[in-house]
Design brief:
There is one protein chain. The protein is α+β, with helices and mostly antiparallel strands. The protein has two domains: about 70 residues, no CATH class; about 100 residues, no CATH class. It is globular and about 60 Å long. The two termini are about 20 Å apart.
């Protein structure tokens, strides 16, 4: 999908195809007063090792996308190996603005099916179905705000932005 964003927070339009059907969405951006536009190319090295990002289309989207975030926000991808202490393996996308917030999007695998088992309602040609598996994931979202800046005029704006991000992700995942 290709997205054209507007100042402030990943609004704009998306068009694409999903399982042979045309898709299109239009979303209003969340306006922020002090943003920095991070080009998608800044994240290419981070996603390079991800097998799901290793395609011409994915590279195109990263090369032409952008991510407007609050100024001085750092973005990190964290892998937490499975262990008795933490449970299942986790992948965390962390947005952090020092002295203001830390927002985590945590993805963990719940399980997978054997070959030939597809999600309900999905139909593929039998020769394709025989090579497919279905993976289930849990995505959790958490925002933590620093008490030190609770009285800052931007804090409420960042809280509203975090809620907006969470609601967009819920909508995109079909919650």
């Amino acid at each position: 999908m290709r997205e054209k964003g507007e100042t402030g927070g990943s609004g704009g339009w998306k068009v694409g195809q999903l399982f042979g059907a045309s898709t299109a969405t239009l979303s209003k951006p969340m306006k922020l007063s002090n943003i920095q536009d991070y080009p998608g190319t800044a994240f290419l090295a981070v996603v390079a090792g991800n097998r799901f990002s290793d395609s011409d289309m994915e590279r195109f989207e990263w090369e032409h996308g952008h991510f407007p975030l609050p100024r001085n926000t750092s973005v990190s991808l964290i892998h937490v190996a499975s262990s008795p202490e933490v449970g299942a393996e986790k992948f965390i996308l962390r947005l952090r603005k020092p002295l203001f917030f830390q927002i985590d999007f945590v993805t963990e695998a719940l399980g997978a099916t054997g070959l030939g088992v597809l999600p309900s309602g999905l139909t593929l040609a039998p020769e394709l179905t025989a090579r497919c598996e279905t993976y289930q994931f849990q995505v959790t979202m958490k925002a933590t705000f620093e008490k030190l800046t609770a009285g800052n005029s931007q804090t409420q704006e960042y809280k509203d932005w975090a809620n907006w991000l969470f609601s967009r992700l819920r909508d995109d995942l079909g919650y």
